Amino acid sequence: MSEFEPKIVAFVCNWCTYAGADLTGTSRIKYASNVKIVRFPCTGRIDFMLLLKAFAEGADGIIVSGCHPNDCHYTSGNFHARRRWVIFRGLLNFMGIDVNRIQFSWVSAAEGAKWADVVNGTVTAVRELGPYTQYRKAADYLAQQDQSIIDGQEAMIIK
Amino acid sequence: MEELRKKAAELLQSGEVQMVIGYEEGTRHPRPCFISSADDTAKLIYDDRCTGNLAVYLTHKELIGGQKIAITASYFALRSILRLLTEHQIQLDKLVVLTVSAEREVIQFATTDDITAYLQTAPVPAREDDKALIEKLNAMSREERWEFWSAELSKCFKCYACRAACPMCYCTKCIVEENRPQWIQPWASTLANIEWHINRAMHMTGRCADCGACGAACPLGLPIHLLSHQIVQEVTDNFALDVNQAVSGDNALSTFKPEDKENFIR
Amino acid sequence: MSKIGVFICHCGENISATVDCEKVAAEAGKMDGVEFATDYKYMCSDPGQTLIKNAIKEKGLTGVVVGACSPRMHEPTFRKACAEAGLNPYLCEMSNLREHCSWVHEKNEQTTEKAIDLVKMLVEKVKKNKPLNAIKVPITKKALVIGGGIAGIQAALDIANAGQQVIMVEKEPSIGGHMSQLSETFPTLDCSQCILTPRMVEVAQHPNITLYTYAELEHLDGFIGNFKATIRLKAKSVDYKLCTGCGLCTTKCPSKKIPSEFNEGLGMRTAIYTPFPQAVPNKPVIDRANCTYYQKGKCKVCEKVCPTGAIQYDLPDQFITEDIGAVVIATGFNVLKTDFFPEYGYGKYADVLTGLQFERLASASGPTLGEIRRPSDGKVPKKIVFIACSGSRDPAKGIPYCSKICCMYTAKHAMLYQHKVHDGESYVFYMDIRAGGKNYEEFVRRAIEDDGVNYIRGRVARIYEKDGKYIVKGADTLLGSKPVEIEADMVVLATAGVSNPGAEELAQKMHVSYDAYKFFAEAHPKLKPVETNTAGIFLCGACQAPKDIPETVGMASGAAAKVIGLFSNNELTREPLIAVVNRSAPPVFSTCVGCFMCQTACPYNAIEREEIKGRDGSVIKTVAKVNPGLCQGCGTCVAFCRSKAIDMQGFSNEQMFAEVMALLNE
């Protein structure tokens, strides 16, 4: 298969989107298998560092999804999360990190079809963007080093 | 200047405070000084070159002990003091907050409301160099910005001078020292550096005084203060909280409004 | 060293039709730390569970991953199975291979690969799981009901009849609330007092209910099952142990010109008074602000006439504290006063009334003994105009919501008027008629069709006085906005129901949230209508939003059922999936620096302050502490804490980090 298959990680809340994705399954709605879901109690629990880690470890795209405003199982976790993502996106964009690779969405426990849409939409969008090697390259410590320095070090050890 | 020295001497002599934190002449720039005796107040200075944020020392328990302190706070240090009060890190009854106004007048603040009022009327010290760089960055494409920042931050060798200079970096255990899990790799490499600076900036949300001390402290001169400045900008633009409101009230990230914008959410 | 067991379920063919379950099990067996991996047709069946239990015992497993359906379906099943085999149930995790994999993807290699990855994620997570124990919170079986209106009365009686102790606190001298002011009630027109007063008496006489009238909540501390309430008993200036309620003092009191709250200012009362004849308790209090003795130092008529010597002028306010396990808020509502509507007469026209004032005019116990008479001159109005939605559904006025009850009580008012003034004409200006409720629509139709009330769809622009008449200028939008002008003798504004003054302060005292209109906020708009976001505090009636009597009573019984349910056990058992603030060895004790920003982020007020003290008792530092009785486990504080001083059991930083890292590492 020549087409690039992006790796997508989805960070979802237990009460709305996880249940919504369960409904997608119960309804037998098919969607791309590129996505893997990580379950959190609430979008308020999702640490922004986990998104960065996902990119560093090879994710090409990320979905963050929870309850619609006013439907949060914990009243306001999604509101807190929303503020966090507003700031986070702004900062990432300022630093030139590709925020188009992060899809935020509200998917309720009744929106099984929407979940399939969100996943397929993200897979298509990220496929067009290509693999996120730019970010991963920064993670590769050795690749950043000037080869001559590495060679030089070896030479020193031999001495 | 004389007025400030007199005031400091009075405070020390009367025993109202046990230490004055201020500026003195340094080799190239003014530097912080810690005065415990009225006899030493003659070296105190305060002028436009005094930009280091002295509020950073207020959370240093080994320095302060249980003493009552007077501080000659710059415009930005006043913001930091408001925030430190909100975050329960300092107590107003253990502190005499002084500043020197643009009219060269010494002002002693009695309440936080007085500080807030002063911040709203006093002119914000300009930082022209930053403006030009911010404009340049905003004109760049995303790819160019990434090139810029990954190149700049690849130079960082994690000396944490930025952290030491920041009044808000008072955590007993910093995220970089957290190793269960190891959120940020301890070595200096591009991504580990980027992650550190993202964390530093995110942790400043609604708390940063925008004083630029982190950037000024960087031995490599990396423009890292622009990251926290960007956060200040995001808070202002998105939550309609200007920086003075943000630092004096509840935290921008631990509160919310149901009508906060969400045009990026599907 | 971890010894993880992986159990892959075929779910009949639900999973195995698209996922190669044998391969998943085989690959799982190769994963680092996996001791045992197998697949089986129905893992949730008895033999399947036995398979897991045996493996736990035989292989000495330290963790279990079941790759099957959604954890929302069978997590309790498998955790229970693990517990039965002696493994802490929180060391069991589920990987969702059915809803999130086999059912949504085609049968191919990628689907099986994904299944393997999903299992690997949970294997890595479960390695970091820690044994957890259910949280037990002791419960004081005594409820505090705040407010003695119909909501509070119903809730208190339901709880008391279930055999539990109730303390009722009412700020007025008598219980009864707004319902006691009503004349007759829609849609049956039965007399409000006739159905309410027996309930009031029942409250007063119930052995399980302690009633404090003329009292307010001063302070509330603690958490679910373990609250401590401080109640202020306002000085009544009358010793209720001596007072027989003969009422002589109230007839002799020389200060007789005080507007009666019960009669909404349409009648007068004395300074020593009982609010109304059927008051419970039927004993007077002295309104110190209006009493000649308290204001001028002379009078003491009541003391002289009292046959039992019950008057005691220098009684101070008293404070009592009570240990309670649950709180029911039933503080009710208020209505907007007419001065809210400058265009309708600035509150200056004596005969422009609120609906609640009209209730008093129509009530047999009211100032006119039930005859509809103008407050200005006592004449019977021959033409009366009712204006619905006065203030409600009017964003410009700041009250965008529908007050819900006005359509019904306006129809009732017009009907009562027609019954009492046979030759009178009544008009109702309305926006829409909202008569949703059993027999409600029929009731409105009756007003229009049987009693001849004239309904005009349109709004009233202005009311002004001219030759002793009130000129009501409006428009009839069903006739193409034709201007309408009515010369009325009386106007009744169906003013919006609003929150009680002081509701905000009370909410803050109890740490419960309230909405933009200062109504108390329910924990979930659909599924937790009687809970607040603070565990153990419930709410009912119009303090949550305007509502009618049946709905209020239903909600009160709902809140009571929640309290009774809570009190049905000696201990409250909760899932341990909550946040905890870490502790560490001296000299740091905890990495928490005490900025307490998490306090503002917590929707449940579960974060408290804890002082860490040295051996000499001095405070070393003040750090955050999570109250396990209140925390619901959303984890917002965890993601928020900069120094990672708070973590969440079951979804800890280490667990989530491991899960994410496992997902992508190759």
UniProtKB/TrEMBL annotation, chain A:
Keyword Transmembrane: no
Domain of life according to the entry: Bacteria
GO MF entry, a single one: metal ion binding
Keywords on record: Iron, Iron-sulfur, Metal-binding, Oxidoreductase
Domain F420-non-reducing hydrogenase iron-sulfur subunit D: 8-130
Protein's UniProt name: Coenzyme F420-reducing hydrogenase, delta subunit
Organism: Paludibacter jiangxiensis
From TrEMBL, chain B:
InterPro entries the UniProt entry points to: 4Fe4S_Fe-S-bd, 4Fe4S_Fe_S_CS
Keywords, in A-Z order: Iron, Iron-sulfur, Metal-binding
Annotated Gene3D superfamilies: 3.30.70.3270
PROSITE patterns: 4FE4S_FER_1, 4FE4S_FER_2
Single annotated GO MF: iron-sulfur cluster binding
Domain 4Fe-4S ferredoxin-type stretches: 199-229
Highest taxon of the lineage: Bacteria
Transmembrane segments: none
Name the record gives this protein: 4Fe-4S dicluster domain-containing protein
UniProtKB/TrEMBL annotation, chain C:
Species of provenance: Paludibacter jiangxiensis
Top-level taxonomic group: Bacteria
Residues of the 4Fe-4S ferredoxin-type domain: 234-263, 282-316, 584-612, 622-651
Keyword Flavoprotein appears in the UniProt entry: yes
Keyword Oxidoreductase: yes
Protein name per its UniProtKB record: Heterodisulfide reductase subunit A
InterPro entries in alphabetical order: 4Fe4S_Fe-S-bd (IPR017896), 4Fe4S_Fe_S_CS (IPR017900), FAD/NAD-bd_sf (IPR036188), HdrA-like (IPR039650)
Family according to the record: Belongs to the HdrA family.
Cofactor(s) in the UniProt record: FAD
Keywords in alphabetical order: 4Fe-4S, FAD, Flavoprotein, Iron, Iron-sulfur, Metal-binding, Oxidoreductase
PANTHER family documented for this protein: COB--COM HETERODISULFIDE REDUCTASE IRON-SULFUR SUBUNIT A (PTHR43498:SF1), FERREDOXIN:COB-COM HETERODISULFIDE REDUCTASE SUBUNIT A (PTHR43498)
A GO molecular function held by the record: 4 iron, 4 sulfur cluster binding
